[in-house]
Design goal:
The complex is a heterodimer of chains A (126) and B (112). Chain A is mainly beta. Chain A has no helices and 13 strands. Helices cover 0% and strands 54% of the residues of chain A. Classes of the chains: A mainly beta (126), B mainly beta (112). Chains A and B meet through strand 5 and strand 12 of A and strand 3, strand 7 and strand 8 of B.
Amino acid sequence: QITLKESGPTLVKPTQTVTLTCTFSGFSLRTGVVGVGWIRQPPGKALEWLALIYWNDDKRYSPSLKSKLTITKDTSKNQVVLTMTNMDPVDTGTYYCARMRRYCSGGTCYSDAFDIWGQGTMVIVS
Amino acid sequence: QSVLTQPPSVSGAPGQRVTISCTGSNSNIGAGFDVHWYQQIPGTTPKLLIYGNTNRPSGVPDRFSGSKSGTSASLAITGLQAEDEADYYCQSYDTILSAHVVFGGGTKLTVL
């Protein structure tokens, strides 16, 4: 069974740096075309992709948030960590981590999709 | 404002068919990137509904189907059920600045 679980502080003050941890089980980030991403959702609003790290340490960031994000992985602990600097009240929301996998069928492989999501962790900036 | 444009809301009566559009551009859907769809029932985690434009993960009813053409994609739901009331999001990739994930703004489906 594949699971992901987010953890981190619930309440953060403006200008602070927050560290969110995604602890997963049931798959490995050591090999294979697999990654883990972070997605957030302000209260009552849409999903917003933040960052992504692949098994080969390839890292991708949202262009609009790149300057305040850092994503890393610890394969020995099965964890992916997202660090966000200079937190602002607009950063309030639920933060999800999700596994990214590449589906292939009949010789065709598709763009990667988030197939398994964590339950999310609420971060309030105030 | 999202890179992928979805209607804010759609509605339909039980048993009816509804479609949700996802409009992009030549830097994302039109560039050949696949579209995925997610369902988020209120108060729950998003769930992958359609991957690779038209494919359903195991366990997703065949009432849900996807399509893609040019710079747009669509999600169709037939035989609407009350349990389908949720927010639906499309997702793809964009190549402006660097290859990155993009989500649509989401569509609220109301079952009348």
